[in-house]
Amino acid sequence: MSTKKIALITGANRGIGFETAKQLGEKGVAVIVAARKLNAAEETAAQLTEQGIEAYGVQLDVTNADERKAVAAYIEDKFGKLDILVNNAGVGPKEDDLFVKKTAATTADEFEYIFNTNLFSVVYLTNELLPLLKKSEAGRIVNLSSILGSLTLHADPTSPIADFKRLSYAASKTALNVFTVLLADELKDTNIKVNSAHPGWVQTELGSVEHAPMTVPEGAKTSVELALIGEDGPNGRFIHLGEELPW
C-alpha cells in the first residue's frame, strides 16, 4: 500500500479539475486524473508527470456504471486505498447559457442530463469508492457544489445570486449539498470528512471566460484546501476559500 496520499479527481482534464490535480500533486499527493476519454486522461497525466507530479490517467465517464466499477478496481489493485475523492465533474444546460433564467419551462431532458452528472453519478461513484476511502487514515470527500445551490441566498432578493435562477442547475447543487450533509453525518464516527466546495465564479467554459472574476488557480484553491484538511477541519459544511456559506 502506498505511503503517499492518493487522490482521484473527476473531470480532471481541464479547468478547475486539472488545476486541482496540479495543486494537489505539487503538495506531494499522487493524483489519478479521470476524464471521459482515455486519451484525454493519459495526456493530462503525462503533462503533470512532466512537471514532476506522480499522476495516472483513467477513463471515467461518471454516468457509466461499468467505468465507475473499473476505476474502483484499478485503485484497489494499484494502491489498495483512496485518501481523497474530488467529485469535480459537472455540467450545465446544453441548449443555452447557465445564466438564462428558466424554472417552469425546464424540460425533462434538461433535468435528467444535469441531475445524472451533478447528483446521481456523484452519489454512485462515492458509494463505489467508500470501501477504499475507509482504508485511509484520513479520507476526504470534496463535492464541487456552487453558491447557486444555496436556498438561503436564493430566497434573499438582495443576495449576489438573486438574478441567477436556473432551476435544473441550482436544484442539482442544492441536492448535492443535501448529500454532503447526510453522508458527513453517516460517516461522522469514521476518519472520513465530507464537504461541499464553492469554487467561486471562475473563468471556465461553464463559468464564462469573459465575465468571471476569478482565475482557474484561485477556483481550485477551495477544493485543494478541503482535500487536505486536518482532523480538526470542517465536516458536513459548505465552504468557499475558508469561509462557510449558508445552505
What does this protein look like?
This protein has 247 residues and is of the alpha/beta class. The chain has a single domain (6-244), classed as Rossmann fold (3-Layer(aba) Sandwich), CATH 3.40.50.720. It is 40% helix and 14% strand. The protein is built from 7 helices and 8 strands. The chain has helices spanning 15-26, 38-49, 65-78, 108-133, 151-154, 167-186, 216-227, and strands at 6-9, 30-35, 55-59, 84-87, 140-144, 193-197, 238-240, 243-244. Strands 3-2-1-4-5-6-7-8 form an 8-stranded mixed sheet, with helices on both faces. The radius of gyration is 17 Å and the shape is globular. The mean pLDDT is 93. Pfam families: adh_short (PF00106). Keywords: NADP, Oxidoreductase. InterPro entries: CBR1-like, NAD(P)-bd_dom_sf, Sc_DH/Rdtase_CS, SDR_fam.
Fraction of residues in β-strands: 5-15%
Spatial strand order of the main sheet:
3-2-1-4-5-6-7-8
Q: Provide a count of the helices.
A: 7
CATH-assigned fold name: Rossmann fold
How many β-strand stretches?
8
Radius of gyration: 17 Å
Lay out the secondary structure.
Layout: E1 6-9, H1 15-26, E2 30-35, H2 38-49, E3 55-59, H3 65-78, E4 84-87, H4 108-133, E5 140-144, H5 151-154, H6 167-186, E6 193-197, H7 216-227, E7 238-240, E8 243-244
Helix pairs in contact: 1-7, 3-4, 4-6
